[in-house]
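Subgroup meeting minutes
Present: P.N., E.W., G.H.
Scribe: E.W.

1. P.N. recapped why we're keeping a running log of single-chain structure predictions: easier to compare across weeks, and new members can see raw inputs and outputs side by side.
2. G.H. added today's entry (820 aa).
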Amino acid sequence: MNTRRARIASGVRPSGLRRALLCGAALSGLAAMPQAAFAQDNADEAETPEEERVIVVQARRQNESLQEVPVTVTAIGGETLQRYNIDQVADVTSRVPTLNVQVGGSGSGGQLSLRGVGSSNISAAFDSAVAFEYDGVVVSTMRMVQAGFFDVEQVDVLRGPQSLFFGKSATAGVLSLRSANPTSSWEVGMRGSYEFEEKGYLLSGYISGPVTDTLGIRLAAQFNDIDEFQLLQANTPAVNQKRGLTDFIGRLTLDWQPADRFRANFKLQYTKNENDGAIGTAEIGCGANGTPDPVVLLGGLLSIPAGYDCNIFDQRYYLSDAALPLAPGVPTPSKAAGRNGVPFGETEIWFGRLQFDLDLSDALKLTSVTGLLNMDAVDFDCYAYGGFLTAPGSTTRLPGAAGCSDPINSLEQLTQELRLASDFDGPLNFMLGAFYEDRTIIFDTAQQGVNISFLAPDPVTGFTYDWDKTHTTKTEALSLFGSVMFDITDQLELSGGIRWTDEQKVQTIAVPYLHTFLQGPGFVAPGFFSGPINFADDNFSPEVTLRYKATDDINVFASFKTGFKSGGIDNSALPSNSLSQAALSGDFSSLIFQSEKAKGGEVGFKSQWANRDITFNATAYYYVFDDLQVQNFNAVTIQFVTSNAGELTTKGVDIETGWRTPIDGLNLTANLSYLDAQYTDDFEQPGGDQLNGRRASQSPEWSGNIAADWTVPLSDNLELFLSGNAAYNDGYITDEFTLNDYVQPSFWLLDANVSIGHPDGKWKLSLVAQNLTDKIFVITSGGRPFLPAGNDANGRPLGDDVVLTQNRGRQVFAEVSFRF
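Output recorded in log:
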């Protein structure tokens, strides 16, 4: 309360604070310009034997040992990522129990969940409950997840609320990626692989080293081309019977240390992703009635055969091109125009990050992190997930997909964070920080929600789309935070802090075009403009942790933590129903969802035994999430349903172990998680189901993995490397819409690697397999749009088909790499 009063009394509005933060960033750089020297960050580590290296994490915005930091963290090094050809965030799940990743969709482009808590991939209006941090910058789009990654130094997964140090969008945890930095001596690396199952190849390389005594540079790039990302079901009426994708990522890193007290690190990355449709790996399950339900349009006047075969595990997808009556006329300057209803997707992302570290004295360091993200994405696909037409007197299938849209997503995000941290010799140290974000999201899409052009195109414009709408959402967020660490004794540390967040959002909705046949009651008028729809909220998020260092190798901790994720204005509302009703009344409150909050704690210990050959860590946790932000799709009314779940309670235990065995070069690791996540207050869905007491989606009761890595020296210049990873998942509910949502049964995943090469990595030949047994499982589910309404004579729904998003199947890589 005092912080808020001080802000109001000072008369400084967010725009003024923004200027102050940006000026502070510039001053921290200018202060050190006249000085000179070069840091070799990795020199000490390079001289340290592999078995003695300490894993460093930044869970509290400073470098700390993984075994000493009182936070539940799973760290995956860059070498492990490369060994298993992990270049997609979704592939990390086999190493982190309770982490669930969905890639794809026309909204945010992906979904992350941890310990049964995540945010919908349908709407880009939602921030992710699992913050995605990229080189120290929390990014606001899951399309960065979609794009993949490479040349990564380390991936850290922090579990539980992390609002104090990572701010908003961290109510469930953080997934943090740190890309590699320049090396202290010149180094060149190249890698090429061919994947046999999806018929894809990958080429990547980097060059890294010191340009001068004070300046290091690293240039890295990767290109990935996959021909058979999806194979379509026989008789699917589509131009592309094989859906492919390509990814290009290029990154420049500059590391400059002109003085012992100053360092600047700059990263600039460009990403381009192209694919043959946004839907991704989505199959259609035929529900309890066991038959493909027709696509029913225009209030039952038109019924189109579904076309798919109901085999949900054969990795053959039925993704028809747009029906010819719907395909031609797109009412926006979209790249979908002129493509005749053939799905595609294009995403371009520019990401920049500039970090300054300035030692103001021997005990005070000022850090500035400036992040800039610019994204332009457009895709076209059809969300009836079925349908075909036939010409009179013919059995040949013609494209019959309905529910098509061409969402154009644009994002501009500027963030600035300043941190002042102390490193006193005494028992008390602190960190003070300020964070500012300025973000604009534009969601512009032409859609076919009614598919009225099956009757006729718009007689005035010739367009075949039902409407065109644009949601523009501007966000301005400010945070002030502070933490202290107090050594009560040499063994006992008390730490804690608080973050204050103020977030303001303004959205406008425009509907410049509406099909002539739809103009009238039940729809907004063409040319509709909502005016500003406002949302504002502020929050204090405290946390406190007590850590006891029993010995050099045993740390025990207990934490109380809170989390906050701002609410906002839904950008999925359609010009019919919810939006038209709001337009008539002038009250847009039905589009607003409330902020999500978390509160709870955890106790745990981290230990090493037998001369640190054995690691054993465990954490028990209990958290309550109020107003969990949930979005689903009503397949009968063709409406997005945005709501806040009353309360979700999660509790469980996470265990991590490692053993450097007496057999030279053989290491074993294992993880095990127990999770009990369920709704513990009223949560009534539009269909009438009360979910209070039901388990949360994506929350397996048991999950874990066990991995073995064995390096076998064959000679002074040759070694054999064998490794394998087996991951188990106990199964989970895949949606939160009814009491009968699809349940994914338990499953195992197996990965393996066989390599031979030089012990120093000068060259290596590898055979890598991901998902060796080709296990297909469901990640999320939801009702298929345009289902028949009503029930049959037995009371069963006439339409019960469901959309099931799935993982990728088996991938087998042959790879060669060089480093010199």
